[in-house]
Amino acid sequence: MLKLEFKSPQSATGVVKATVHKSGKLGFSSGAAKVLGLSTDSRFKVAVNTADEEDKNLYLVESEGDDKELFKVSKAGQYYFIRIKHILDEMGVDYRDGRIIYDIVNEENEGMKYYKLVRRK
After folding, report:
1. What contacts 96, CB < 8 A, 6 or more positions away?
2. Which of the residues 16, 36, 64, 74 has an alpha carbon 20 to 30 A from that of 30?
3. Cα separation, 84 vs 111, whole angstroms
4. Smallest Cα–Cα separation from 20: which of 102, 120, 115?
5. Beta bridge partners of 115
6. Hey, how many other C-beta atoms are within 10 angstroms of the C-beta on 48?
7. How far apart are CA 87 and CA 25, in angstroms?
């Protein structure tokens, strides 16, 4: 027996990515906003992997509250962003002269859910 399920050429959520703007803001695509459930009430902790110097990815952990480590999500028009200029500067990422794009992957490790932002080559 054969049962075919035809697929659409377009994803239901769209492209799930984040792009670094020349201002150092990390802007989320509309697909990423859907997957992450972004709103102006959203807050994230931003991390890097200090156990692996070759890991140039960013990590986002959704959090609540008003602690100093939380990054507030802002909105401009229909797009959401967070300000991470100082983190990119610390990492030595040259975001002013080239396009920096991260694909967003939902992951879990030891019970902790987070988003891994994998930098495109």
Report:
1. 22
2. 64
3. 26
4. 102
5. 60, 106
6. 14
7. 10
Q: Helix %, strand %, coil % for the chain, to 5?
A: 10, 40, 50
- The first and second tokens of residue 23, run together, are 């201002």
Partners of 119 in beta bridges: 102
Strands 79-83 and 100-109: unpaired
Distance (Å, rounded) from C-alpha 73 to C-alpha 4?
42
Bridging pattern class, strands 74-76 and 79-83: antiparallel
pLDDT tens, the chain, 121 aa long: 899 988 777 767 788 999 999 999 999 999 999 999 999 999 999 999 999 989 999 999 999 887 888 999 999 999 999 999 999 999 999 999 888 999 999 999 999 999 999 999 8
> What's the chain's length in residues?
121
Single-letter amino acid, residue 10: Q
